[in-house]
């Protein structure tokens, strides 16, 4: 039982300062059980191609459907999982759920690409590319339908080791994006050398790009940088029509944000998509498509 696990009794009782620590330990023990019981679930947030208005993919965002506490957000449990060495297992579960869902959507005529986030330890794990290949084969999903997102901060931590894993993933045909770009101090030399396809500019620069001149300057020059490096630019945190218009004007490739849709469960996303893009099997009926 998790409660009797030797890792669970390391904290002394009675001290007020220990309360937060004990809370974390409880959460961690419950997370181990939660992984066994498959309590993790995914919400999906659409990504729209700005040139055509077509939703081409979704980002899978993990939530923990806790039996007592309800839906718990990743900021609460991902750092614990990473610290306790559970990230390998967690990522495999997320990949499995995301690719199963991707297969089901494709079977229903929804040709969506699914983006999955990787953690720091995933990039140091030489077995990761093999696991990804297994999961793709298990659901018969083409590698090009899987995108993997790695935050700039994580990429910079051990770029040399990460590059080996990334190159292997990319050689399989999986597409790679630098997530939260602009917050992680990557040098242009690294950006040039990294085997990545897309730059996903952090929402700190995107959300107010329609009103803040400095954000605008950063967005515009990042689009240019991405394109000059042969990459696509994805803007996250698009919260208004005004920001969306500017991004279109500046030739940004893809957008994601509350203005389009919040992350939502798979069934709701499919309904939302069908109402927005009727008849996904028939390109002539997608009103946004350029003819
Ligand atoms: P991220 O990968 O940068 O994902 C975007 C986050 O911004 C999500 O938060 C999303 O709900 C939120 N977001 C989307 N649009 C908007 C917007 O217009 N405005 C604002 N203010 N926020 C927006 P979420 O789902 O809480 O995830 C937080 C972070 O947790 C993610 O940031 C990612 O780094 C990490 N994460 C989530 N799922 C996974 C996973 O399965 N594996 C790993 N390793 N990390 C994950
Ligand atoms: Mg992401
Ligand atoms: Mg991000
Ligand atoms: Mg983030």
UniProtKB/TrEMBL annotation:
It comes from the Bacteria. Residues 24-277 form the EAL domain. This is Diguanylate cyclase/phosphodiesterase.
